[in-house]
């Protein structure tokens, strides 16, 4: 169950050297970070990392936040051992790097993780959230995977799946007004296509003044005026999961 007294324990993420409350496990051919709530739970959320990979402290912090709200959380290595992007890398090589890491080629890994959650963790209802690259992966899964109940795509790269909008499950799309990677025209077009083609519940929300990555950014990186929107995005994410899981 969700922790109603503290629906969004954002203070955990204050420490720059955040290490995580969970543990790393091997799930068949995939490494994964898993965190479980203190009380038994039958609801789980798969957390899909961004280009910086499954070990990014910010992403693990978000997984732990889900746990504090009563969910089993798992963040698998969807790059399956391939190196995550580093800020020191040459951005001129980014497109070549991306070609070997397709956000639509994660179905095999998702099936393995779903089996683990059901058989090893006792999960009966499973949702998914993802950031940037992972947000696009959420959209992909919401279009085709019948075993997931709901998804939250946080600044998912629209151009990866921009021509597909017939979602199978309720999906919440979080975008930043000043995202240099996702122009607002793309968001508007996505909304139009969802309106035309989507037969399940969905929501598209743009957070004023925010930039790419704002929801899972640490406080050391933000301006005070951004903090309310970061906290709002996190609460919105939890509320959506609470509603559909």
From TrEMBL:
<feature type="domain" description="Dienelactone hydrolase">
    <location>
        <begin position="30"/>
        <end position="245"/>
    </location>
</feature>
<dbReference type="GO" id="GO:0016787">
    <property type="term" value="F:hydrolase activity"/>
</dbReference>
<dbReference type="Pfam" id="PF01738">
    <property type="entry name" value="DLH"/>
</dbReference>
<dbReference type="InterPro" id="IPR002925">
    <property type="entry name" value="Dienelactn_hydro"/>
</dbReference>
<dbReference type="InterPro" id="IPR042946">
    <property type="entry name" value="CMBL"/>
</dbReference>
<comment type="similarity">
    <text>Belongs to the dienelactone hydrolase family.</text>
</comment>
<keyword id="KW-0963">Cytoplasm</keyword>
<dbReference type="InterPro" id="IPR029058">
    <property type="entry name" value="AB_hydrolase_fold"/>
</dbReference>
<protein>
    <recommendedName>
        <fullName>Carboxymethylenebutenolidase homolog</fullName>
    </recommendedName>
</protein>
<dbReference type="GO" id="GO:0005829">
    <property type="term" value="C:cytosol"/>
</dbReference>
């Amino acid at each position: 169950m969700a922790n109603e007294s503290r629906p969004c324990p954002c203070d955990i993420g204050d420490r720059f050297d955040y290490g995580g409350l969970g543990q790393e496990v091997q799930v068949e051919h995939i490494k994964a970070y898993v965190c479980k709530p203190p009380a038994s739970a039958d609801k789980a959320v798969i957390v899909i990392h961004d280009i910086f990979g499954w070990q990014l402290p910010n992403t693990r912090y978000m997984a732990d936040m889900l746990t504090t709200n009563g969910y089993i959380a798992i963040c698998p290595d969807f790059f399956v051992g391939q190196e995550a992007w580093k800020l020191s890398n040459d951005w001129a090589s980014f497109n070549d790097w991306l070609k070997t890491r397709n956000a639509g080629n994660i179905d095999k890994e998702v099936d393995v993780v779903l089996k683990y959650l059901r058989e090893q963790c006792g999960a009966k209802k499973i949702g998914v959230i993802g950031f940037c690259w992972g947000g696009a992966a959420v959209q992909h899964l919401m279009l085709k995977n019948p075993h997931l109940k709901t998804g939250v795509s946080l600044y998912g790269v629209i151009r990866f799946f921009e021509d597909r909008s017939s979602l199978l499950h309720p999906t919440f799309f979080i975008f930043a007004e000043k995202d240099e990677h996702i122009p607002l025209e793309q968001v508007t077009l996505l909304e139009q296509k969802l309106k035309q083609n989507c037969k399940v519940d969905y929501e598209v929300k743009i957070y004023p003044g925010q930039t790419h990555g704002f929801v899972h950014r640490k406080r050391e990186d933000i301006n005070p005026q951004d903090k309310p929107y970061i906290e709002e995005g996190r609460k919105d994410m939890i509320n959506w999961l609470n509603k559909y899981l």
